[in-house]
Structure formats: C-alpha cells, structure tokens
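Sequence only, no structure available. Ideas?
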Amino acid sequence: MGRRKGFTLIELLVVIAIIALLMSILMPALSRVRQQARKVSCQVQLKQWGLYWKMYCDENNGYWLSGLMNGSTTNAGSGRWWFVPMLEMFKIGEEMRLCPQATKALGDGVHQGIGYWANQAWQTGTYIGSYAPNGWMCNPPVGQTSVWGRSPASDHWRTPNVANAWEIPLFTGGWWVDFWPRHTDQPPSIAGGPPDSPNNNEMNRVCVDRHNGFLNGLFCDFSVRDIGIKELWTLRWSKEFNTRGVWTKAGGAQGSDWPQWMRRYKDY
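Reply:
I predicted one. Tokens follow.
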C-alpha cells in the first residue's frame, strides 16, 4: 500500500485564507446580532419598568411622583427623587437600571466635567443606571411653581391619564438621572459631549445613540418602542412642547442644519 500524503503548505495556506475570509464575512453579522439582542433585552426591561410605573400610579391615586422626597427637596437631588422611592417600593436591582448596551459608569458625577458617551451609564453616589425619567411627567404639589427650577409647573403632565399618552415619553435611555427637554433645545454639537448644563439644552441628556441610530423608550400609555435620534424633537415631552419646532421637518429643519455626527440619522 502507498503512503498517505498530508496537506501541502500551499493547501494549508488556502484553507487558512478561506477560514479568514469566512470570518471576515461572519463577524459583522455576529456583531449586528449581538446589538439586536441587546436592543430587544433593553425593550424587555423597559416593559418591566412600565409595570413598576403603572403600579406606582395605581398606589398614588393615578398620579406620578411629585419630584420631591418626603415633601421637600432635601436629599432628593441627583435623581434620588425618583429612583429611591421606586427602589424602595419595588426592590429593583442594579441590572434592571442598566440598558445592556450601557452598563459601565466612569465615576460619580463624571459627566459634569467631560461630557458623555452613548454607552456610558450614569452614577450618582453608589447608584448606577442608564435609564431616566422625563421630568415633565411629575405632579408638583399645589402652589409649587416649578420642579427643580424647571418651570412653569403647569407644563407638567402629572398623570398618565391624558390624551395621546402614546406620544409622551415617560422613561428612556439617557446618560444622566433625569431630563426636562424643551423644543428649543439645541442638539449636542459632538457625540461625546458637551458637558452637562442643568436646566439648559437638557435634550442632550437623552440624545444618545444606544442602538444604531435609536434609543428605546417607555411611553405614558406604558408601550415600548425604539426612538430615532432626531425623532426626539417630535415627541410631546411637556404640555407646551412644540412637536413641529425648528428641529423637525415640519418646522423646516434640513439635514445640513444638524451637527455633523447627526446628519446620517433619519429626519423626522
């Protein structure tokens, strides 16, 4: 019987080249699958948050949080006005506070000095998260003219029992603990910033590309869907929010009006 021949060096190189080619084709597809899985997991978590918020309203005579803690702003800053009551009521673990695409924070309050990244979680004290509420949903006490300096109090929704609740964001991805967007807010000039400016251009806090041109959001009818980055300016954040403002197609915005990093996104 003749001796069995092994692979030649050229044959081995051809096999390696074919494997490398297949890997180069498959890796982008695998990356997209992982990103899609994280997006779906994020939406599932927001669905669960919808149950938490609904149960809170059911226990609070149909109203949202006031924006205060124990009737005052003492020790209620840096988002504690919402996540401390919610965590105490429902024992929500850290994992539920984190979008699967944004699980790491850079440190307590780091955002205030250097801006942010889309896949960065926020941190305040020992609390970490990457979701946050629309502050305009609050139910300010009678006689209070503003919530954390965001006024007027009459612009707040107070309850989910309003017309077209499916247009009103309740709880979305974000790089800080809360936000009060206005239709006049300018889009962030760069993807990694600018540093935070409370009560000024707070749409920056929610304008994050978490899921390939989108972020996920929970709405006041407790539905969940993805939101286009530029679509943020078309949603009814507050009672007086102009959904046909200058940063919408209806308001005359052109693709070239947007900062360079946002021009590739779909217009709304």
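Strands lie at 104-105, 120-124, 127-129, 131-133, 169-173, 214-219, 224-228.
Hope that gets you unstuck.
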